[in-house]
Specification:
By secondary structure, the chain is of the alpha+beta class. The protein has two helices and five strands. 34% of the residues lie in helices and 28% in strands. The strands form two sheets. A three-stranded antiparallel beta sheet has the order 1-5-2, covered by helices on one side. Strands 3-4 form a two-stranded antiparallel ribbon.
Length: 74
């Protein structure tokens, strides 16, 4: 996947949640990767300072968003 053409389909402050979404997408044939997963450092009393993003290829964006929406609706 060309990371220059990747698009964000999910954001969270929880790196583990991002990995679960990435894994579910890949199990359903959509290649994905977690961006900033290790950079989610905490700021005292405020929680994670950087949002963790799940990225997919631009051409897979619509399918990934549909899949995520369906899973959130369950």
């Amino acid at each position: 996947m060309d990371k220059d053409r990747a698009e964000c389909v999910f954001r969270t402050q929880d790196p583990h949640e991002a990995e679960l979404v990435r894994s579910a997408l890949e199990e359903n044939g959509i290649r994905a990767f977690v961006f900033d997963g290790r950079a989610a450092a905490s700021v005292a009393m405020f929680g994670p300072a950087i949002m963790v993003r799940v990225m997919v290829a631009a051409e897979d964006r619509a399918a990934a968003l549909k899949f995520i929406a369906e899973k959130e609706g369950e």
